[in-house]
Amino acid sequence: MGHRRTAREIALQTLYSVEMTGDSPDTALENVMAMRKFSDEAADYARALAMMVYEKREECDRLIRENAEHWEFSRIALVDRLILRIGICEFLYGENVPPRVVIDEAIELAKKYSSEKSGGFINGILDAIIKRCGGLSQKKDTVL
């Protein structure tokens, strides 16, 4: 598994821990990282991604609400919301992460950590957001 895929899993686990325990992102990340050994590249990318998603969560949630037609935001599963936030942040702020890769990686996370139907839901929401944001031409400042 590539270091970015591993990093996305670490970030997802970290963000889930933050939501469930109320711990700070730093504390949650330390706890997740203590479970097993990760490459420096995966650890660095996971840290940057988790912190960015945590900081940008309100903007991400606004985009999810605007693009989740016929879905009440509060009914979207927590894991799905977190996967969507990760995808949105990688698309809007990530360096050299093509839109198709963002969507494919989010679907893979959903297959592993969410329900059977989550992949299609996440695909639809991220695709709508990416189209609305104009593909790669509208990327904001690169952070990752």
The first-level CATH class name: Mainly Alpha
Output the structural class.
mainly alpha
- Name the shape in a single word: globular
Share of residues in strands = under 5%
> Low-confidence spans: pLDDT under 50, at least 5 residues?
136-142
CATH topology: N-utilizing Substance Protein B Homolog, Chain A
Over all CA atoms, what is the radius of gyration? 14 Å
Which labels suit this protein?
7 helices, N-utilizing Substance Protein B Homolog, Chain A, mainly alpha, 144 residues
Task: Note down, in words, how this protein is organized.
There is one protein chain. The two termini are 19 Å apart. It is globular and about 40 Å long. Mean pLDDT is 91; it is low at 136-142. The protein is 70% helix and 0% strand. With 144 residues, the protein is mainly alpha-helical. It has one domain (3-138): NusB-like (N-utilizing Substance Protein B Homolog, Chain A), CATH 1.10.940. The chain contains seven helices and no strands.
